[in-house]
Design goal:
Helix content: 25-40%
CATH class of the largest domain: Alpha Beta
Order of helices and strands: EEEHHHHHEEEEHHH
Structural class: alpha+beta
Number of strands: 7
CATH architecture of the largest domain: Roll
Number of helices: 8
Strand content: 5-15%
Shape: globular
CATH topology of the largest domain: C8orf32 fold
Strand order of the largest sheet: 4-5-6-7
Number of domains: 2
Length: 241
């Protein structure tokens, strides 16, 4: 068994075995999720490692070259899902080189797939590229918003969905603060539900917390409930100049 360090019971439990995805909840319940199926066992008809790259999308030459290099860098067709996800993690979350001090700083002309090409991007770039590389090696993965102005990923290994933050360059299972098991619907909608609760409480006059009210206004603007002008006017009332 592989014992994992730096776990303190956050997110409902700890990883006790990263090789077979064994998770121990804070109440002592132990569940082994397993590594997920080998792709070839489920899809023996697919033998081309570039199979999922042959979709009707036109990528710049340099991007397509890097994508082809990635899908040919290991035998993903004969690998289980955990191996495939870890390879995606190592390519995206660890960046493209040893010096990532400016990995979140972008030039104005940052190209598509900036993380893949340059190891740099903002959270939505890391999340989107992580999800794309998962797709190209046959793993189900989506991006979502776990918190205010932040994007991360939900990735499925076997029958279990895991939340993971591609902007965190630590190993995939070093900490349960980086990757942890979730119920898909609950986690995918968690932040939106939290914000909606704050909106409802603010509308009901149950809180005078200006930060909460400001967050509620931001959600209303991004969801189209109010216009940008209305948002600016109300934020002016809350916070002044």
């Amino acid at each position: 068994m592989t014992a994992l360090a730096d776990n303190n019971g956050v997110n409902g439990g700890t990883w006790t075995d990263g090789e077979n995805l064994t998770w121990e909840t804070n109440d002592g319940t132990v569940t082994t999720f397993g590594r997920g199926p080998v792709f070839a066992d489920e899809h023996p008809e697919i033998t081309d490692p570039e199979y999922f790259l042959k979709e009707p999308i036109t990528y710049p030459v340099e991007v397509l070259q890097e994508l082809r290099k990635f899908v040919s860098s290991f035998d993903w067709i004969h690998s289980d899902e955990l191996t495939r996800v870890q390879m995606v993690h190592d390519r995206i979350s660890n960046g493209c080189g040893p010096d990532n001090r400016n990995r979140y700083e972008l030039d104005i002309d940052t190209p598509h797939f900036s993380v893949l090409l340059n190891g740099k991007g903002i959270c939505k770039d890391f999340a989107a590229e992580f999800a794309n590389l998962c797709k190209y090696v046959g793993v189900e993965c989506v991006t979502y918003e776990p918190s205010f102005l932040h994007e991360a990923c939900l990735v499925k290994i076997g029958d279990q969905w895991l939340a993971t933050d591609p902007t965190d360059s630590t190993p995939f299972f070093l900490s349960n603060g980086k990757t942890y098991p979730v119920d898909f619907e609950t986690e995918y909608n968690r932040y939106a539900n939290e914000v909606q609760t704050e909106i409802d409480e603010a509308d009901a006059g149950l809180t005078d917390d200006r930060q909460s009210l400001g967050l509620a206004l931001t959600f209303k603007m991004t969801s189209g409930e109010i216009t940008a002008e209305e948002y600016e006017r109300e934020m002016q009332k809350l916070f002044g100049n």
